[in-house]
Design brief:
The protein contains seven helices and nine strands, in the order αββββαββαβαααββα. Strands 5-7-6-8-9 form a five-stranded mixed beta sheet. It has a four-stranded antiparallel beta sheet with strand order 1-2-3-4.
Length: 239
């Protein structure tokens, strides 16, 4: 046992130095690449990819790749040939995952279909055409509770409409009627609309840059107006 001790100590030291070297290389790449990209693109992290000499670069909620000299920035997907696994897609999903419990349901307009047993959350602008198209598709979705978080980001009129919807006697009906049928929204929108401001702040924290953005109870997100079949498939996988 005593003879093994020096070997084990050397092995532990070698692994420690290797880990330190990797960390230093990743930090060096991050610093150099950030300098080349400037302040407009903030790099969150640089980590080794499954391909030797290629590093994963996280910018905002997007994944790119670079070489050890940070000379090139690559945009594309890494797919494991043996399994067909899309490693980039999985990493993108993991990096964009949130905690469902971080979504304050009190600040959302709740719409229930059927028994409401399934759940999803949508960040939407009342003037967003894709949001309206999504809302029409969701009418075919049964047994689901939808939490609609209003984030008026498109125009001043979006802000006014969001306030009017939130302050309506029946916000859920007013929201659905407007999004699906274009029913004029009445009311002054002069109630306490602090929830809308909080939604905007939350959207920024979560890195939401466009509407609609959909979240599921496992924290995964679908950016854009996803197909109903894809939403159904995702909800089914969460049972």
């Amino acid at each position: 046992m005593n003879k093994l001790l020096p070997f084990l100590l050397c092995l532990a030291l070698s692994l420690s130095f290797a880990n330190l070297s990797h960390a230093q290389s990743e930090q060096k790449i991050k610093t150099e690449l950030q300098g080349k990209l400037g302040g407009n693109s903030k790099i969150k992290s640089v980590t080794a990819s499954p391909i030797a000499g290629i590093y994963e670069v996280q910018v905002g909620n997007d994944v790119f790749y670079t070489d050890v000299n940070s000379k090139y920035l690559l945009q594309g997907e890494i797919i494991e040939v043996a399994t067909g696994k899309n490693i980039t897609e999985q990493r993108q999903s993991d990096l964009n995952r949130i905690k469902w419990s971080d979504l304050p349901s009190a600040n959302a307009i709740k719409v229930v279909h059927g028994n409401g047993s399934r759940q999803l959350a949508i960040f939407a602008d009342p003037n967003c055409g894709y949001c309206k198209r999504l809302e029409k598709s969701l009418q075919q979705l049964d047994n689901v509770t939808i939490y609609n978080y209003l984030i008026p980001i498109l125009s001043a009129d979006s802000v006014q409409k969001a306030k009017q919807i939130w302050c309506a006697a029946d916000p859920s009906k007013t929201y659905v009627d407007w999004m699906i049928n274009g029913t004029p929204i009445t009311g002054k929108g002069d109630c306490n609309t602090g929830a809308i401001e909080k939604n905007l702040g939350l959207a920024k924290t979560l890195g939401i840059t466009g509407t609609p953005t959909i979240f599921f109870i496992d924290g995964s997100r679908f950016p854009g107006a996803a197909q109903l079949t894809d939403i159904e498939k995702k909800l089914a996988s969460l049972k």
